[in-house]
Specification:
The structure holds two protein chains of two kinds.
Chain A lengths: L12 H6 L3 E3 L17 E7 L2 E9 L19 H16 L7 E10 L8 E11 L3 E9 L5 E10 L7
Chain B lengths: L3 H7 L11 E6 L3 E7 L23 H20 L6 E13 L8 E12 L2 E10 L2 E15 L3
Antiparallel strand pairs in B: 1-2, 2-4, 3-6, 4-5, 5-6
The chains are: A mainly beta, B alpha+beta.
Chain lengths: ~160, ~150
């Protein structure tokens, strides 16, 4: 990670200077909820004036669950797994605050370029708290060659559905 | 109507990423209804311990959207004439995908998707996902794109 922060387009300087603690989790088991794969390798997070900013990385790995099947002859990180990366990064960054947080809405997503096995995805997101324990998440991600691969806006919060 | 074998031949995803089990209605380039049975055998449940609160076992929204998208892909593939060997079919964009409820192992998802409009090669679909009478997701818009395999 060291030394890479300046090369990421859109990196927030004040964020990079602080070098907040890296949050790592070793296994899907540690997430404590159903997930297709461990969609983050590590997350850094810092609060700025009520907005939580985070930066997560994920190396696209052909041996991860599901990846050998997407696709059998060419490994492409599925767009929905970027949504999963956003979810996991937010949950890990918020820690205890994230208890009961689920995806309520994928407001918008644009998947601009594929990420193949071996590519390193870097994702930056701003997480703003709203009424009712809801969070608006704006995320952008890049490949390690600098190409922007996706822009995602999510709403997360308590789903509030009475369980049948 | 496409049985499992026909679906496997049509969709580029392999096992266990193929997240539609059967197509029960298909009007090519117009509308499709796909069925997906959720099982605790799926990889997304493999590493989860027992005894957590019930909602922790909800089918991940990412896979729910992928399952809807693959159902919609049957429309895309019928509209675009299949995927050439030098192309890859990707989710291009999505908007207003609301998760209304949870689906669990043992639930059977029914995805209903129809083409809302076509702009050039871009086929926009909208629809919803249900478990029985219960609405679990509403999809305002999704579009797939063909990209060259060489990046």
């Amino acid at each position: 990670m060291n030394g890479e922060t300046e090369t990421w387009p859109g990196a927030v300087p004040s964020f990079a200077e602080d070098e907040p603690d890296v949050i790592r989790i070793a296994a899907v088991r540690g997430l404590g909820f159903a997930a297709p794969l461990l969609a983050v390798d590590e997350v850094r997070a810092a609060r700025r004036e009520g907005t939580l900013r985070l930066r997560a990385t994920k190396r696209v790995t052909a041996s991860d669950p599901y990846m050998a099947a997407h696709f059998p002859t060419l490994t492409v990180f599925p767009g929905v797994f970027i949504v999963e990366t956003v979810r996991q990064a937010v949950v890990l960054a918020l820690g205890a605050e994230a208890d009961g947080l689920e995806i309520l809405q994928l407001r918008s997503a644009r998947f601009l370029a594929p990420m193949l096995a071996g590519d390193l995805m870097t994702l930056e997101a701003a997480v703003e708290e709203r009424d009712g324990g809801r969070y608006q998440v704006n995320a952008t991600c890049w490949r390690d060659d600098g190409v922007t691969t996706a822009k995602v806006r999510l709403e997360m919060g308590p789903l509030g559905e009475p369980d049948a | 109507m496409l049985d499992h074998g026909a679906l496997r031949a049509l969709l580029p995803q392999g096992h266990p990423m193929m997240l539609v089990d059967r197509i029960v209605h298909l009007e090519p380039s117009v509308s499709v209804v796909g069925i997906k049975a959720i099982s605790g055998c799926e990889p997304c449940y493999r590493d989860l311990p027992g005894g957590l609160p019930p909602e922790r076992y909800a089918y991940p929204a990412s896979l729910l959207l992928e399952s809807f998208g693959q159902t919609a892909a049957v429309l895309w593939l019928s509209a675009l004439g299949g995927v050439r060997d030098d192309q890859v079919l990707m989710l291009g964009a999505a908007r207003g995908c609301r998760i209304i409820g949870r689906a669990y192992p043992g639930d059977v998802l029914e995805h209903r998707a129809h083409v809302s409009h076509v702009v050039g090669d871009n086929v926009f679909v909208e629809g919803e996902s249900r478990v029985g009478d219960r609405l679990v997701a509403v999809i305002e818009s999704m579009v797939a794109v063909m990209r060259p395999r060489a990046v």
